[in-house]
Recover the amino acids of this structure.
């Protein structure tokens, strides 16, 4: 029966080609616009670490006070004193302090120019915490952190470039004039958005290729390439003065496997801040935050407003296309009132009329979907014209998007066909036979 | 023209009327908001930077090895000497930033050292005595920096500059009577900075919305940034030699010292490229909104044509009767045009409410400005005309229905 209605649908489509074409194009445009924008929206609102996103927490402690903080919110990063105190206390299952630095890979071969991959200085827990995969070796341990050791974890692409993919664990590389021993080679790892440090790169920059111990970076007086926010700029000169200053620049994350752990840790942060108030470091009541990955991405507005705006706009556009299709289908179906009357008089039930016309709607939807798929392809390909290149490259037309495009097109057409079909089924047999 | 019979006829096909009205309403809501976004986005595009855009380019120079501030300063000075010697280069200056970079250093400006609230905010540009010429900006009062006034600023340092040059916009903001030259202000410091020169115009490092209140307000400070990381070199080619200069400068820099990184992607940018990057998203959004508007209007027009044709087909007999009873072709044409006009007006009324609703939502969610009435009016006029034109073809066909049709049975 389905096949028969499908054939009827096809035949009917051919009967009024202009009207049919109009409907197909309308649906195709509506679906293509919304799917293109969805492909961007999907990329930027991606959960970068789904298996752990509810166990990892960004830690914030207000070291600015109510006069200088952001509408009551503590700064995004900790100052060095707080970060080191929290790290030492070790109250979470795992915790990591980190900050982005700039280091240059200097080749022994003097003809090679130095390169500068994305680099982070981290404490040793970061590897286990962020589920960083390893091809060879692994992260370093607490001893290396304590000894400020010159060790490094490098990325797979860098290992390919420097060592042609061979196991380079144990070898040395020169970073900005100092030698570091390679302890691990990461497998491909590039969470997007880079949830743990959104402030300094917006979340969509190049993949990280180097990790060195934060203690070593501090030893070398490497400044953060992320943000540094200071309430008082006159903290004196020199590196030690900077470390002692109240400037916020250290990113801090904690891994807390369940809610009880998170509550306990929040209490600990509160107590810690209260203690700082008691000893006179802070002149205000504790103001701390603990946000998991999803809350953090939301708080940091990682989804660009352009992406949200154009996604919502494209949904509005799809809605208008649907309204238009309803009107056109109504015209098309009602034009065939006589035909329906004859069929009803010949004994066709309302159900069969429903089935036939809905099938016709679905056929239009499918045709619109196929054309829409082509347009979506063009749309995704030209996303770079509208969005930043870093974001545009994340939007892709994959199998799930193809399926979704066709599904949305057929569902939209069915939705649009409901009212016209209902009207068609209301046509009374006797009226038409007069 | 009698409206009453049209209204009662509409009651016969409520669904079609509501669909067209709804479509017009939604189209108006989206089109006038989209037009408004286009205007907001394009507003900044034509703002002048004040610099010699045709000949200026920017090098992002990053040091590959760590060195002391003194060593870094020597390297910068050597680089500058090498660049200024190039035949295609007119002038060059080290700096911390450049106009339209996207972000940068800004300072609160106070008129007295005791102030706790800022008077205003200004972007900070560092450079030596060649900065004005390298950017190609015009000094309209006072003098340029002298060589002996140029100092150094290392990593993690902030210090006041005793002498500064400011933009006219900042000078006028601080001293509206035009007496800024020779006066001082306080730049997040207890030591005053004296204005020794005023330049005509220099755009900010970012054109973000929050910066609009401080547009074109900049302080130029005579400092070389001896940051261990790196800095920008602003280079101005001789007229017509931009391409040569952009080819020669990286070579000259590597010849000086190879321990540096000039990123292949954005290590060297002509100002045309800087401008393009700064406004890419804005232009993209404007293009997107434009496409959506055009397609939307086309689809709405197609919908009106479709449904009106259907009505004309349905009513051929009635039209024939009217014609037989003495109605002229013009009467029939007017009937359909008026019908469309009434539906449009109804739809537009609803559309106005939705348009402002969307705008309020966008103000709350996306910090958009309030929708100005002129955009709504443009939208209303466009949609009324669109409706009339879309109706015209089917209505003309209706007017050609012959009175004989009245005698034909279905």
């Amino acid at each position: 029966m389905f096949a028969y209605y499908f054939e009827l649908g096809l035949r009917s489509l051919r009967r009024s080609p202009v009207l049919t074409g109009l409907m197909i194009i309308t649906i195709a445009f509506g679906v293509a616009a919304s799917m293109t924008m969805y492909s961007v929206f999907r990329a930027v609102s991606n959960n970068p670490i789904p298996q752990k996103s509810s166990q990892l927490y960004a830690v914030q402690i207000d070291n600015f006070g109510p006069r200088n903080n952001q509408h009551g919110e503590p700064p995004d990063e900790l100052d060095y004193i707080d970060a080191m105190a929290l790290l030492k206390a070790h109250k979470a299952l795992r915790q990591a302090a980190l900050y982005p630095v700039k280091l240059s890979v200097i080749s022994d071969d003097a003809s090679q120019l130095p390169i500068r991959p994305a680099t982070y200085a981290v404490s040793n827990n970061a590897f286990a915490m962020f589920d960083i995969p390893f091809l060879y070796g692994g992260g370093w341990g607490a001893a290396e952190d304590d000894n400020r050791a010159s060790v490094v974890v490098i990325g797979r692409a860098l290992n390919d470039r420097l060592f042609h993919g061979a196991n380079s664990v144990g070898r040395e590389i020169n970073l900005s004039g100092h030698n570091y021993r390679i302890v691990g080679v990461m497998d491909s790892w590039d969470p997007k958005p880079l949830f743990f440090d959104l402030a300094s790169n917006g979340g969509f920059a190049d993949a990280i290729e180097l990790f060195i111990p934060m203690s070593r970076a501090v030893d070398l007086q490497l400044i953060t390439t992320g943000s540094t926010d200071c309430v008082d700029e006159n903290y004196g000169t020199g590196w030690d003065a900077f470390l002692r200053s109240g400037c916020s620049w250290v990113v801090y994350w904690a891994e807390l496997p369940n809610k009880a752990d998170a509550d306990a840790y929040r209490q600990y942060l509160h107590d810690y801040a209260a203690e700082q108030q008691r000893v006179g470091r802070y002149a205000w009541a504790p103001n701390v935050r603990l946000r998991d990955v999803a809350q953090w991405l939301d708080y940091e507005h990682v989804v660009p407003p352009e992406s949200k705006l154009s996604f919502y706009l494209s949904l509005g556009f799809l809605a208008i296309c649907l309204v238009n299709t309803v009107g056109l289908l109504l015209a098309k179906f009602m034009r065939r009132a006589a035909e329906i009357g004859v069929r009803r008089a010949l004994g066709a039930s309302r159900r069969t009329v429903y089935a036939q016309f809905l099938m016709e709607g679905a056929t239009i939807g499918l045709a619109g979907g196929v054309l829409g798929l082509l347009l979506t392809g063009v749309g995704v390909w030209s996303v770079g014209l509208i969005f930043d290149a870093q974001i545009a490259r994340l939007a892709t037309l994959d199998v799930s998007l193809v399926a979704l495009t066709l599904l949305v097109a057929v569902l939209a057409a069915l939705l649009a066909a409901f009212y016209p079909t209902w009207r068609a089924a209301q046509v009374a047999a006797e009226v038409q036979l007069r | 023209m009698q409206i009453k019979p049209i209204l009662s006829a509409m009651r016969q096909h409520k669904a079609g009327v509501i669909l067209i009205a709804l479509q017009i309403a939604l189209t108006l809501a989206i089109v006038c908001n989209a037009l408004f976004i286009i205007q907001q986005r394009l507003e900044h595009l034509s703002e002048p930077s004040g610099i010699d855009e045709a000949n200026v380019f920017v090098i992002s120079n990053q040091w590959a090895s760590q060195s002391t501030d003194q060593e870094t300063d020597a390297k910068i000075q050597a680089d500058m000497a090498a660049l200024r010697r190039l035949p295609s280069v007119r002038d060059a200056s080290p700096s911390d930033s450049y106009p339209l970079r996207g972000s940068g250093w800004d300072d609160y400006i106070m008129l007295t050292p005791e102030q706790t609230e800022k008077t205003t905010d200004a972007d900070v540009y560092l450079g030596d005595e060649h900065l004005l010429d390298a950017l190609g900006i015009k000094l309209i009062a006072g003098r340029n920096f002298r060589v002996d006034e140029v100092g150094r600023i290392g990593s993690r340092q902030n210090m006041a500059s005793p002498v500064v040059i400011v933009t006219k916009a900042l000078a006028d903001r601080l001293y509206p009577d035009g007496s800024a030259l020779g006066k001082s202000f306080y730049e997040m410091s207890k030591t005053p900075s004296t204005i020794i020169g005023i330049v005509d115009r220099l755009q900010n490092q970012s054109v973000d919305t929050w910066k609009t209140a401080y547009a074109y307000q900049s302080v130029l400070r005579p400092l070389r940034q001896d940051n261990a990381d790196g800095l920008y070199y602003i280079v101005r080619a001789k007229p017509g030699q931009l391409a040569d200069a952009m080819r020669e400068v990286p070579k000259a820099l590597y010849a000086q010292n190879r321990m540096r990184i000039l990123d292949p992607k954005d290590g060297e940018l002509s100002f045309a490229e800087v401008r393009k990057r700064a406004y890419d998203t804005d232009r993209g959004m404007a293009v997107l909104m434009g496409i959506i508007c055009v397609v939307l209007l086309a689809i709405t027009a197609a919908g009106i044509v479709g449904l009106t044709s259907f009505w004309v087909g349905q009513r051929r007999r009635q039209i024939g009767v009217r014609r037989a009873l003495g109605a002229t072709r013009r009467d029939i044409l007017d009937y359909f045009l008026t019908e469309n006009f009434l539906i449009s007006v109804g739809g537009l009324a609803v559309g106005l409410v939705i348009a402002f609703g969307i705008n309020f939502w966008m103000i709350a969610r996306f910090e958009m400005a309030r929708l100005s009435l002129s955009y709504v009016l443009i939208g209303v006029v466009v949609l009324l005309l669109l409706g009339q034109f879309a109706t015209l073809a089917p209505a003309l066909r209706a007017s050609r229905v012959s009175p004989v049709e009245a005698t034909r049975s279905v």
Q: What stands out?
A: Residues 4-44+279-407 of chain B form one domain. The longest helix of chain B spans residues 271-314. Chain B touches chain A through 58 residues (CB under 8 Å).
